[in-house]
Amino acid sequence: MSLIALAKGSRISLSRDFHVEILRGGMNRLLLRSMATNSNPTRVEIYFPYVQHLDIPMRIEELTISCEAWGASDSFLYRLESNGVNVGQVVAAHCIFGEDEAPVGSASMFPIDT
How far is Cα 29 from Cα 32, in angstroms, rounded to an integer? Predict the structure, then answer.
C-alpha cells in the first residue's frame, strides 16, 4: 500500500466508480472509496481531512480530481469531474489517496474509523 498526497497544481484521473463511504464531523473527514471489481482487483480510497466545504454527489464515475490554491488559507480547492464534466468540489486541508488489496468489509487505510 502506498499513500500519495495530491499537490497544488496537480490532478489525478481514475477510471473507476467511487462513492462517499464516510463523512464525519469532528475533524470533518471525507472518504471516497472504489471497491475491487473483476476489472480492477484493488481497492482505492481518497481521504480529505479537515473539510471546510463540500458540494459533491454520492456516486462519481470516472473520477478526476484537480488541486488549486484556496485564498489565503491553508486549505486547497479540489475540483471533481466525472467523465470530463465538473460534478463538485471539496475545500480541505489535503487530498490523500491510496490503493491496496483489502477485501470488502475491511477498515479504511486512513484514520477515519476512530
Answer: 10
